[in-house]
Amino acid sequence: MFDLFTQVWQQRSFAATDGDDLDGPLVDHLTAYRRMVGGTLPVGATYTLLSCWTTLYGLVSLEVFNHLRFGLDDAEPFFEAQLRVIAGQLGMAPS
Predict the structure, then answer these.
(1) Domain extent listing, the chain
(2) What is the pLDDT along the chain (95 residues), one digit of tens a residue?
(3) I need a labelling partner for 55 at 20 to 30 A (CA). Which of 30, 35, 44, 64 fits?
């Protein structure tokens, strides 16, 4: 995932925080993660990667285990809307 995300960053250079507005401990964790995977993404882009991934993973997990039924009879429109949000974060036009 990190390599694929790095490719998106290199091709689109989506808007990302420069990291100055992130808490110090969070920056430390993001830096350690980036170092662990051998990545070159800036801290802010690494934050965007984790934000997008956890959103996507969380939505899939909630849907698989039927935990969206409390508010959604059909989760697909919500899922599609969230994919558009993620695409927007990455500077991609949703299709």
Answers:
(1) 47-95
(2) 888 888 888 888 788 888 889 999 999 999 999 999 888 889 999 999 999 999 999 999 999 999 999 999 999 999 999 999 999 888 887 66
(3) 35
